Amino acid sequence: MELTESHTLPVPQQRAWEALNDTAILKACIPGCESIEADGENAYTVALTAAVGPVKARFKGRMQLADIDAPNSYTIVFEGQGGAAGFGKGDAHVKLEAAGDESTTLAYTANAQVGGKLAQIGSRLVDGAARKIAGEFFRRFGEQLGGDAQQNTDEAAQSAASDAEGEPQAEGAEETPKRKRSWTAWISKS
Q: ∠ CA(29), CA(31), CA(37), 5° rounding?
């Protein structure tokens, strides 16, 4: 699986770099994260609970920061075990670039492999879950950095539009969480 995205953060590049290296901020932003603890130089142990389709598990893993070019980029190498649910491992290259005095563009490319039950449920569900987790992370990260409501609303609208798979909605209609999950439930029953 490969995931490539970019996001505009409402802070200067140095502030974005500091936040990406602050374990308290990361713990608050990563969906299902229970702990992030230092485990050597530029290494961390992580525990989180995640659900991918019908598979929900508690994962324990390790991430290592490599190729550090502060405050511009680094590579995160990660691996985790979820017991009977399987495992995940891979890497993500993260790049920060100033987009003016008060904003920063964060771009990343993540490559991951999964095994066990996670691999059996299909790449479409795994990819969808990864995009959903990434979207939630950046929504929370923007809030932690003091992002304005408009930027967060724009990202939520883009996410909702992609989840609706192009189906038109009545103006002013709210999309319920049940609607967002319906395609996942349908696929997992197949």
A: 65
